[in-house]
């Protein structure tokens, strides 16, 4: 090994060729906490995000020895854990989306720095879209929201949910088709 190789910082993901040790896990936490929190908050609301995100990282820490970097990126692995935990709270998510469908978005306007996140968050959805999302099957909603809210690629969604790559496309296609059918001309009203 050259002196340059020893002195050059190597990202934790490149160093990890197996289980995540405690030091590497601290880096994982620091790198992905905000991103995972934003995703969970957009799905379940701020009130429930802290608990779910804490449980996500606690689960990841407990299972860090089982992490296989050849199977999925740490990012996709964490989104998979978070999505599974959201699944346990699916009644809450569906109830929240149905309520938003009845009540509509809040009248308060966020500051400029939050405008992008708010545009796609569950709390700012048009009532029709919130109601339509609530009607989707959980597996279809998970795939759609991992792409729409978290920006995961199809491959990352497949890894996060533990499903074949082709199934991601099928679920997204089905979800989008159902949303288009349910929303009809809603997009033109904005």
State the CATH architecture.
Answer: Up-down Bundle
Q: Quick one: biggest sheet?
A: none
**Domain tally:** 1
The CATH homologous superfamily is named PhyR, sigma-like (SL) domain
Relative helix content: 55-70%
| Total helical elements | 11
Average of per-residue pLDDT values? 78
Distance between the termini: 60 Å
CATH level-1 class: Mainly Alpha
Q: Which fold name fills CATH's third level, the topology?
A: Butyryl-CoA Dehydrogenase, subunit A, domain 3
Strand share of the residues? under 5%
What does the overall shape look like? Answer: globular
Gyration radius, rounded? 18 Å
Number of strands: 0
Structure description:
- The structure is a single chain.
- Helix 6 packs antiparallel against helix 8 (127-135).
- This protein has helices at 3-7, 12-15, 22-44, 46-62, 74-88, 90-103, 115-120, 127-135, 138-148, 154-161, 165-183.
- It contains 11 helices and no strands.
- The protein has one domain (19-182): PhyR, sigma-like (SL) domain (Butyryl-CoA Dehydrogenase, subunit A, domain 3).
- It is mainly α and 190 residues long.
Task: Write a compact overview of the structure shown.
With 190 residues, the chain is mostly helical.
Can you give keywords for this protein?
190 residues, mainly alpha, Butyryl-CoA Dehydrogenase, subunit A, domain 3, 11 helices, 69% helix, disordered N terminus
Which secondary structure elements does this structure contain, and how are they paired or packed?
Layout: H1 3-7, H2 12-15, H3 22-44, H4 46-62, H5 74-88, H6 90-103, H7 115-120, H8 127-135, H9 138-148, H10 154-161, H11 165-183
Helix pairs in contact: 3-4, 3-5, 4-5, 5-10, 6-8, 8-11, 9-10, 9-11, 10-11
